[in-house]
Design a protein that fits this description.
Elements (H helix, E strand, L loop, with lengths): L16 E5 L6 H11 L8 E3 L13 E3 L2 H9 L3 E7 L2 E6 H9 L4 E4 L2 H10 L4 E6 L3 H10 L5 H15 L7 E4 L3 H11 L4
Parallel strand pairs: 1-6, 1-7, 2-3, 7-8
Antiparallel strand pairs: 2-5, 4-5
Helix pairs in contact: 1-7
């Protein structure tokens, strides 16, 4: 029997995996929401989180919302491709749906934080890592404080994390500057070869 080349999601097929990362507040979820709206056929991984839903968020769309014990079970069962603690909550990527799609050669987009991107770099080195950068630090502060969904201490934690995340840009394969959501979506979809 001849092993078919690229049959493992860890192998060459992982080239179809695109990871979108960048500091909190830079607009990653807006970009993902726009892709969901304009290109509903592009499959987006839905992460698991222990964070409480924000107004307007729906179970199974932006996230699967679980409690700490539920998250612990997913970690213990090896069911997450990567996971990280971010600003007091845990976030992770369910492994099976991603591996199934990559196994079929279909494009997959993950929107995750820097720690998660580094884990993917380690386990799936063929993935393409895309860094979404703000037009300026001032603009990032404005977006994070203007969102109005988090209390000041949480915003402060997210700004601290953003300083660290911005310094990691050089670890990524591609940087896209978020001057326009539409432009970033077009560039991302072109990179993913889905348009
Ligand atoms: P938020 O609470 O603003 O939705 O997300 C906070 C941070 O967690 C963002 O940087 C977001 O990209 C990241 N994040 C969302 N899902 C995942 C995931 O599955 N894994 C990791 N490592 N980070 C995630």
């Amino acid at each position: 029997m001849v092993a078919s080349e690229g049959s493992s999601a860890q192998g060459p097929l992982a080239r179809r995996l695109t990871v979108l990362s960048g500091p909190s507040g830079v607009g990653k979820s807006t970009v993902v929401a726009e892709i969901r709206r304009s290109h509903p056929r592009v499959w987006l991984s839905v992460s698991v989180t222990t964070r409480a839903p924000r107004p307007g968020e729906t179970e199974g769309v932006q996230y699967h919302f679980v409690d700490d014990a539920g998250f612990d079970r997913l970690v213990a069962g090896g069911e997450l491709l990567e996971w990280a603690e971010f600003a007091g909550n845990r976030y992770g990527t369910p492994r099976r749906p991603v591996e199934e799609r990559l196994g079929r050669g279909e494009p997959v987009l993950l929107e995750i934080d820097l720690q998660g991107a580094r884990q993917i770099r380690g386990t799936m080195p063929e993935a393409r890592l895309v860094f979404l950068a703000p037009p300026s630090w001032e603009e990032l502060v404005r977006r994070l404080t203007g969102r109005g969904t988090e209390p000041p201490d949480v915003i402060e934690r997210r700004l601290d994390a953003a300083r660290v995340e911005l310094a990691a840009e050089k670890e990524f394969d591609v940087t896209l500057v978020n001057t326009s959501v539409r432009d970033v979506c077009d560039e991302l979809l072109t990179l993913m070869a889905v348009q």
